[in-house]
Amino acid sequence: MLEYRGVTKKFYKRDAEITALRNVSFRIEDGQFVSVVGPSGCGKSTMLNLSAGLSKPTAGEILYRGQPVTGINTKLGYITQRDNLLEWSTVYDNIVIALRIRNVPRQKQKELADYYLKLMGLQDFAKHYPMELSGGMRKRASLARTLIYSPELVMMDEPFSALDAHVKGMMHEELLRVWELETKTILFITHDLTEAITLSDKVVVLSARPGTVKAIIDINLPRPRDPFLLQTTPEFIEIYHRVWDLLRDDIRKSEAA
Prior knowledge:
Layout: E1 2-13, E2 16-28, E3 33-37, H1 44-51, E4 59-64, E5 67-68, E6 76-79, H2 91-101, H3 106-119, H4 135-147, E7 153-157, H5 165-182, E8 185-189, H6 193-199, E9 202-206, E10 213-218, H7 227-230, H8 234-256
Parallel strand pairs: 3-8, 3-9, 6-7, 7-8
Antiparallel strand pairs: 1-2, 1-4, 4-5, 9-10
């Protein structure tokens, strides 16, 4: 579905040149859950902006279903670190906003909204405002707002980073349940190795800036997965140490910079 071929991205600020990504290559197949991990500042969020067509690579190319990404990619959904819910709108109105922009008939809007509100366990909160929701509920509303217009690929930029450990674990359960039910393709950015391994089919490990691919690790853990039980298994712990060994020096390097 999505392929990076030798992608390099440079930024220019005053007289300084900053290389965020260098010669990045990897592929995401239909239906895969792929996470990208790496130290702060290694270009993870830049990758999402490039995939969405919000920015262009300095070198190399990005292909979406075999075609170069040359402009805004309307086939995907993009969930940022902030939920970006409209505080003055109800949960229902937040969820259907993309359908209204697309001039979807009102009855169809209601049918889809009712389905995704129920899917996310928010059916009793349709008339509530975002300020009346917990952090986890806001994240679920944000996910429903993205899924409702059926993007082929869902990109998520550290969506659970602000949540405490217990709520984050519950969101992992919810995301895996929805992903398996909806059979979406997901590109997930995170600093959290436990999160990446728990959720993913494959983990792309980036070096410190400029971000380069150090390794692509297949996560051959059985599904369906219970996030809380999975993390205690020897297989999970072995993969965790393997990824951490790849990242340890780069994280120290990025924090010392």
